[in-house]
Amino acid sequence: MSGRSVLKRIDWLTVFIYLALVIIGWVNIYSSTFTEAEPSIFNFSTLHGKQLFFIGASLVSIVIILAMETSFYERFSSVFYIVSMILLLGLFIFGKTIAGATSWYDLGFFNLQPSELAKVVTALALAKYLSDIQTDIKRGKDQLYAFLIILVPVILIIPQPDPGSALVFFSLVFVIFREGLPLYYLGIGFLAVLVFVTTLMFGTVWVSIATVLLILLFFLLKKKKSKIPILPLISIAAVALLFSLSVNFVFNNVFEQRHRDRFSLWLRLEKDPNKLEQIRKTIGYNSYQSEKAIESGGFFGKGFLEGTRTKGDFVPEQHTDYIFSTVGEEWGFVGTTTVIILFTLLFLRLVFLAERQKSDFSRMYGYGVISILLIHYFINVGMVIGVLPTIGIPLPFFSYGGSGLLFFTALLFVFLKLDTNRLKEEF
Amino acid sequence: MRKILLSSIIVIIGITFIGRLSYLQIFSFSPDHVLEDPAIKRIYDYPERGYIYDRNGKLLVGNDPAYDVMVIPREVKTLDTLEFCNLLGIDKKKFKKELRKARIYSPRLPSVLVPQLSKEDYARLQEKMRRYQGFYIQKRSLRYYDTPSAASVLGYISEVNERDLAANPYYIQGELTGRTGVEKQYEDILRGRKGVQYIQKDRFNRDIGPYKDGILDTLPEQGKEIHITLDKELQEYGERLMHGKRGGIVAIEPASGEILSLISGPTYDPSLLVGRERSRNYNKLYNDSIPKPLFNRAVLAEQSPGSPFKTLNALVALQEGVISPSTTVTCYSGFFVGGRKRGCHCGGGTRNMNSGIYKSCNAYFASTFRKIYDKFNTTDEGMDVWEKHIKSFGLGGFLGYDLPTGRRGLIPSKKFYDKWYGDNRWASSTIISLSIGQGEVLVTPIQLANMTATIANRGHYYTPHVLKKIEGNDITNPKYTEPKLTTIDRKHFEPIIQGMADVYKKGTARWVQIPDIEIAGKTGTVENFTIIDSVKTQLTDHSVFVAFAPVDNPKIAISVYIENGYYGSRYAGHIASLMIEKYLKGEITRKDLEKRMLEKTLEHEYAKPFSGEEFKINEYVW
Predict the structure, then answer these.
(1) Across the interface, do B20 and A311 touch by the CB < 8 Å criterion?
(2) What are B169-206's pLDDT values in tens digits?
(3) 3-state percent breakdown (helix, strand, coil) of chain A, nearest 5
(4) Would A255 be classed as within a structural domain?
(5) Number of CB pairs < 8 Å for A and B?
(6) Fewest C-beta in 10 Å: which of A412, B375, B484, B560?
(7) Segments forming the whole domain that contains residue B149
């Protein structure tokens, strides 16, 4: 296939949104790492200079990705997967420790984070396995294999420790679901989260009362000849109650204090103003400062390089995980909404692209891309604006970080490459 | 369904985020005002508060430098507490307590650790302070009083409270503001404006340079110096005369309305309310609940005016044409109202206006008062006319002088009596006490002085005021420079003034004459009551005197109100004559009288109602 036809067929809307996000992201990194002493944007010793370098590297990688044969990605996905798992394993011996997590290889000029690579290849491998003609997702054994593909990197990443990255892989369950995983898996997941949160907020007693009332309501309203079985319903309720009890146990005995504090901050459990103040100064410092920074931006924001909290470095890790708070402070509601809308458009466009694929592999990989990007975006922005507990993962295309940007770019553009080939594809 | 699910989740997440962001950035948006932004430190540069001089350019209030030891709790590193305490001259316990207090107030804002060091301590500490992180010395200036008197006019300054902070965004915690008197009234002029520098900080509270390159920074604006109308010497002299006496003295220059002295007894030394001992002294003064030194009697004490009020009734009667100066009334050492005899001390006989005034004949003025009402068909109508005339002298309302405290006094109206007695249940005979300045009418000493100045001016007055110059320029506020006319024609004043001059020459105040100075005055002796164990009990009369001098070209009009001083000339008259002599001649020729007035106290009178025993009133004992 000639380069020309790639340029003709590539989905330019996605490319534009991608470029917009990268540019806006860089502008905000520039602002949050800016010092009067080094105003030059091309100084590669500064963080924004380095990021600029990686933006260039990403553009180069886009060219390479687009130049490859489409079939290359599908064919070698298993190899990639195995290599990447070996790289994750290798961290236990050769890994470099930054901020308490052994997640990097020191390559001299930059640090490679193999878990970022693993996200791409796991999405590829899962798509490959599920699209295999012999795989039937309705079968328990195939479900197990699919889950194993997801679980292996998770198991390798958790001990680094990097629970945030590990969490990302679970989003790939969505791909399996899209391909026919029975609905009740999702239902159980949803129910578990619901019971977990409500138990923490209201306690087991209220959750039990609510459950019993719901069942009674069900009995009162149900028609005489309804075929909905009663026994399984009651047993689900019983399991839910047991789970609720275990939540308390786990929360109080298994979780560490910092985890408890994160949850109590998230769910606004702590009512004692003194303790709340204490949490705000310690474990909740980041969230509190980032919320305050966003709040202080108001509707129009304080203006580029005018964010006093950004300048004063009040929000720690602002150029990485908390980059969105810079948008909030300097560009206000207008800026934050613009970014949210850009991301939303990107995701909807990707769903549209995935659904129009004729090849199962391309569609499944597309779903993998969406799942991974979406969960990053959801958890990161949710954390920065205070609707989710603190989980440290970056905002795709936005946060400072070389390997992050490279692999998010690769993740996206491999899919765009597959998309350019959608019409020809026939195996 | 599986196809739509993901899109729905994407949209729901987007909506949730935008919802949360609009909550944060629109609904609970609190702009980081430059004053509230934690990332911006403000350094204030306080200007010196303006000096206050008297009418002759003598210094009344200046400034003294003071040094506070400040602490920023979170910057405090471990230190040798014992050594540091020795250096500061405080004990360890107090040091820890103050430090805890400062931390509770704010760990990152400076608090005062030890206020107002002496200059010597400052010199000793200055060098060593650098060794202690988180502590520094801040210079500020304190008020310095070059006089022990005039507290009632000058007022004092104190730290702003919650109300001040809410009322005026200029102030921040810990700043000073005028609390009463001139300091409060002319706060804006005296204070100037503080300068401010904005410094950008990082989250470790380190300065990282001026905020926005200093475009918001301002320079301090100096406080302006003012001259007030008081005569420092007269004020000090008057306060010495008030020694051991309660009451008020107000002296006004009739031709300008300038207040020459405004004295309240007992008073306090303004220096008491400065510095480290301020709050202890204030509480002492505040809790002194019987003599109430903080109560400014000159502008707040509402009492019956007594006989000086007779002059106004005479003026009203002349204006309404119901009497002439030659109209006579026979006094039977009293007069009859409603079949009941009321007493008079004038000695009885036939009185015309002149002798009515100088002998202060109650019968004459009762008759005159009734004549005013008899002119009209109804008492209501008469009351309205009388009230209008009396109020034109500035009575019964705030005069509009430039001190922040005051009382209206009371000039009763027909509405007042309708409520008091019922509609049409009263007549001029019911309210006959008004004719001699007793009964319901109430005035403050400053109103009484203004009334006297109005008579001295023959029918107009300038609103009394204490501000004379700002930065050397005379005030131009028309409120104080334009005369207010009374409703009485100028020609009616001469016979009254003649009567008042005769008070001095041959009347009730002939004992207080000053050589070479012709004075017009009027004595007053005011009956008053208190309640002891729920029994209404009469106390020794208040001694009242109003006067102006010289008669033909009045330079000073004065009212003296001495509580329980007995008859008018006994205390008030003497004190007024000494004040007038002091002001006009600069020195006192009657040394014996002066000595007596300076030394005599009325404490024995004030102790009577609290003695728990029976007591006599109006005794002739010196």
Answers:
(1) no
(2) 888 777 889 999 999 999 999 998 888 888 877 666 66
(3) 70, 5, 25
(4) no
(5) 107
(6) B375
(7) 46-193
